[in-house]
Every structure is written in structure tokens, then in C-alpha cells.
Amino acid sequence: MINTKVILKSRPKRLIENNNFDIVTEPLADLQPNEVLVQIEAISLDPAMRGWMDEGTTYIKGVSIGAVMRSFSAGKVIRSKNDMFKEGEYVSGLLGAQQYSISNGENLTKLNISKGKVSLHLGILGMPGMTAYFGLLEKGTPKKEDVIYISGAAGIVGSTVGQIAKIKGCTVIGSAGSDEKCQYLLNECGFDKVINYKTEDIDEKLKEYAPEGIHIYYDNVGGPTLDIALANLAKGARVVICGAISQYNNMNNIYGPKNYMKIVTARGHLTGIIVFDYAEDWPNAINEISNWINEKKIFAKEHLIHGLEKFPESLKMLYTGENFGKLVLMV
Amino acid sequence: MINTKVILKSRPKRLIENNNFDIVTEPLADLQPNEVLVQIEAISLDPAMRGWMDEGTTYIKGVSIGAVMRSFSAGKVIRSKNDMFKEGEYVSGLLGAQQYSISNGENLTKLNISKGKVSLHLGILGMPGMTAYFGLLEKGTPKKEDVIYISGAAGIVGSTVGQIAKIKGCTVIGSAGSDEKCQYLLNECGFDKVINYKTEDIDEKLKEYAPEGIHIYYDNVGGPTLDIALANLAKGARVVICGAISQYNNMNNIYGPKNYMKIVTARGHLTGIIVFDYAEDWPNAINEISNWINEKKIFAKEHLIHGLEKFPESLKMLYTGENFGKLVLMV
């Protein structure tokens, strides 16, 4: 059997270029005891990938040059020498950007396809959905009538945070980079107020929409937006750092929040979310979100692209904001 | 009766200049009903004063040009038309940098001089001591065997934090700007390790002294030191922001911590201390610290300067690090 895979050819200086990747084919090795062969159906494109293309940090090792690009992928077990996995079962994990993946079963998650189709398990029922769920509920600790502001709100994490916050009785303000995305947040996700950060002044709009300040800031973007949010905190505010998409292409000169002392004067605190810390509770969360989807309380927009060869250009869309909904590459 | 007072003549552009202040004399007004006349004995010189000399923020209003410079001061009630205060009692409050102050008794704190002499009530038994006590115990939540790093450790807040942390069973690392201050921390305050930030590399020394990372960072300085501390957090670390003395002369271009995402990866959180939030518990804290002083478990170094006319040059010492111990101007 021949495998097609996306390999890392070179590390980006700053922005990702198409030629940082190569698509190569290679015969698959024979299965060893305990191994399973997964036919990948869907590959998640995630902001963290930019970091994985670098040399690496203490937190996470970079992808080696020539190795298959790391990715969360999901697919069907088509051969198994592992008692834990049966042929026909669906799984997800760090299976890489490729057509087939051989795994020893460690860190492989079984997917309950009755809860949603395979691509959803990379989005709202997968890591981004879990990041939204635990980041909001465990770190943001929303209370009824709290005002929450979410940056990068049209992304899968942001839109899920906002919709769960609505379920919890909060007033939800989100910012995004186009009128189309803002309309989507208002009309399909039920946000109360939206800010198009490309045409509107976030600070001015926050002061208008949240004159008493914001109780929760869920940060997906970092940079100056974080500073604006810090300047608008209500007393006792929780700042949840989820990502910093504005900074991922700029790791050598990160924008540090100049207004960090506002956390002190607001009697607030800043913390973050590492979603794998809640791995044991993922099944319950998947269940709850899946129920909300069935009850039409949550809407999960997907942006599906077909074809492994589209990997480089699809990934770049994440950093330019061109994607609209959870970006998944279907193999 | 004639009062001598320090007034704010002009706002500093960046660094405080002697001629931002003027010393003027003026006859005292007659006492109105409910008012008390306090003869000031000691004036606290505090980092926050630089901010008070500016136009003001939402958090705290600046001192008006021509008005007496705001300060925490302590002294004796020498006349009283207020039933709450008797002649001969000692009080402290925002009584200003002057010889006499008239107060309506609001926000005036009675001092128990049996717990320590008047200048101590502006230091370890006053706001700085309370900041150390509540910042460490309520926000840093020290546990036995935690490693704590304190920047600006030779100041009254830092040295008190370190000594209380020792009482709580922590390993205490402090940084300061001279070998003399470092020796003081080791020999008189019982710190375990010290770093002279002018001659040693803080990052290198933290990695040597706290190879597993720091559980608590008590930040008195801000700036790049905060970034170094963030890069050395242990899992679950608490970052307590108390001050940012390195930034007070630089408020239009604050250094934002570029490593703020390290708080997330360390599963830590960042918060701060507003000491007045604990006003009700001050008497208990004063009692406990005063007992520790009597038991020789805590040592409170003072730097006393005599003469109201020395106000401007004394205040400047805070920002150059020339003071050694709690800086108090004795009238």
C-alpha cells in the first residue's frame, strides 16, 4: 500500500510559505504487534501548527525536517493488531497530515460517530470544542448576567465559547474581522453584540456595549486587543488566555500586554487553558455539546477543504483570517 | 499657627525633579466641628507617589498643581473636635507632606504605638507591611517547601514578604541591586539565596537556585525581570503583581511582559494585591507582624531622613534604589 503524506521541508522564517512543505509518497510498513492502521478522513488545521514548524520549545518539540507534518487527524481503523481497537472503529489523535497512519494505539481517542460526523470530532467535539468548553467553564467561571468579551470570536473556539456563555446566561460580545463573520455571530450564534475590528474601534465599542466593564475576557488573539480588553475589565474579572493568533508569526518579538497592571487594579486574574489537563472529562463534555447541537442551542460552522495537496494553502488561511468556520482538510 | 507644607509645583515629564515641588508656609485654618488637628511626625515615601504627580487615571486622581503633596503620614492628635479622636492619640492616613494636617476623621487610622514606634506604622506595620502580608498570604498562598522569588527584595515590601515566607516554610530567593543589600537579605532577613541583578544574570541564577521552577513570584519591579520570572515558573505557579518600580517613570511606554503565555503553559495565574481591600483585617495583621518582630522572627530596616525640606531629594532615592530600608521622612 502506498501512503501520501505532507512533510515539513523547511522552517518558515516568519510567515508560512507553500514551499515549507512537500507532498511525497512512500510504501507503508507492515503492521507490528499492537499497531493499528488508520485511514485518515479528516485533518485538523490548527493555529498551533505554526509553532510546531519551529525548532521547538520546552513546551513542545518542533517537527523534524523531512518528517510528516504533525496534525490532529481522524479516520477509520482498517487493520488492527491491537486488542483495544477493532477494524471499522473511528479514532483521532496526532496521526499526522497523511493518507494513512500507523499507530501503536497510545494517545489514540475513540470517536463516537453517533455524536457527530468525523470532521466535527476535530472541531466542536474535538480539541477546539474542548478548549472552549473547559476554558470558559473552568477558567472563565461564567455567572448569570456576566458580560463576556471574546476576541477571534468567529473561529471555532470563539464561537463555541460565546454560544456556551449564552446558555449560561451571559451577555456576549465578540469581535471578528469581517461584516460577514459579525453577521454570522449575531444571527447564527446568538451573540448580543459584535465588533468588526477592521472597521470599528474595539475600545470605543466595548465602552459602549459594556459600560460597567467586562467580567470575562476570552482571548484568542493576543497583541493590542488584549491590552484593550485589560483596560475594560470589571471588578473581579477573569482573563482567559487561549491563544495569540496575532503573535504566532512573530514569536521572536511577542507583543507583551502593557496594561497588565489593570488586572491588579480590577482585582482580577489572568490564567489560561491547557485542554489536555481535562482529558478525563472530555467524554462528558462531548456528550453535553452534542446534546446542545441536537437541541439547536449550538451551531458549529465548518470550513471543509478537499484534497491533501491543498494542505499548505489551507493552513495559511488560518493566519490571514480567510477561513470561516472550523478549517478541516478532508482526505 | 503656621503650617509648612510641600506642594506640587509642576508635573514631571518623566523623572522627578527637585523643582516639581515647593515648600511653602501658611497659617492654619480654625478647626471646624468634627475636625482634628494632627501634628505630623513621619511621612512615608512610596513608589505610588510618582503616579500621583501625574494628571491621574481612572484608578486614582492625581494631585492638583499647587496642592499639598499626597502622602501617608502619621502623627499625634493635638486638638480634636471629633468624638472619635482624643488629644494625644496617634493616627495615620493620607495627611499629606506637611507639618500639620486638619482631618475630618474619615479614613484616619488609629495607631497602637505599643505595637511599634510611629515610623514603623508607615512601614512594616503600615501599608507596605500590609501589602507584603496580604499579597503573600492571600494571593501567593505559600505552602511549605514552595520556592518563592521576590524582586525588589531589599525594599520594605520585598524583605517583609521574604521573612513571612520563611516563617511559612518556603525557600526564599530575592534579587536586589547591590552586594550590601544582598548581604542584608541573607544575614538579617534569612533569605536562602540572593541575586545581585546588577552583576549577576537573574535567569541563570534562578535556573541554578530553583531548577524545578518557582512556585510564587512576588513582583515589585515589572519590566524584563517579570519576563525572566515568567520563563521560570513551576507548574501551578502564582504570580503576584505588587508594583512595577522599573516602569513608574515610563508610564507612556510600559514594558508589557512578552512571556505572559508562560503563565498558561505553567498552569499558573497572575493576580495582584490592592491592600485596602483587606482594611478590616489590618489590625490582626499588625498584631501578628508586631509579635514576629518581638520574637525576632522579622527584622524591619528603616531609612529615616530628617527635615521636610529634604522631601524632593528623598523621594527621588526610591527610583534610583539609593534608599536602604523603608524610607520615611521625619518632620
| Domain module tally of chain A | 2
Strand content of chain A: 25-35%
Instruction: Specify the structural class of chain A.
Output: alpha/beta
- How much is the average pLDDT of chain A? 93
Q: Estimate the helix proportion of chain A, in percent.
A: 25-40%
Q: What summary fits the major beta sheet of chain A?
A: 7 strands, mixed
Instruction: Report the order of strands and helices of chain A.
Output: EEEHEEEEHEHEHEHEHEHEHEHE
Give an overview of the whole structure.
- The structure is a homodimer of 331-residue chains.
- The first copy, chain A, is an alpha/beta fold and 331 residues long.
- Chain A folds into 2 domains: 2-123 and 300-330, Medium-chain alcohol dehydrogenases, catalytic domain (Quinone Oxidoreductase, Chain A, domain 1, Alpha-Beta Complex); 128-275, 3-Layer(aba) Sandwich (Rossmann fold).
- Chain A has 9 helices and 15 strands.
- Chain A has helices at residues 49-52, 127-140, 156-167, 179-187, 202-209, 223-230, 261-265, 282-294, 311-320, and strands at residues 2-8, 21-27, 36-44, 73-80, 90-93, 100-103, 109-110, 147-150, 171-176, 193-196, 214-219, 233-241, 269-272, 302-306, 326-330.
- In chain A, strands 3, 4, 5, 6, 7, 14 and 15 form a 7-stranded mixed sheet that branches. Chain A has a 6-stranded parallel sheet with strand order 10-9-8-11-12-13, with helices on both faces. Chain A has a two-stranded antiparallel sheet with strand order 1-2.
- In chain A, strand 14 (302-306), helix 9 and strand 15 form a beta-alpha-beta unit.
- Chain A is globular.
- The two termini of chain A are 16 Å apart.
- The model of chain A has no long low-confidence stretch (mean pLDDT 93).
- The interface between A and B is medium-sized, with 26 and 26 residues.
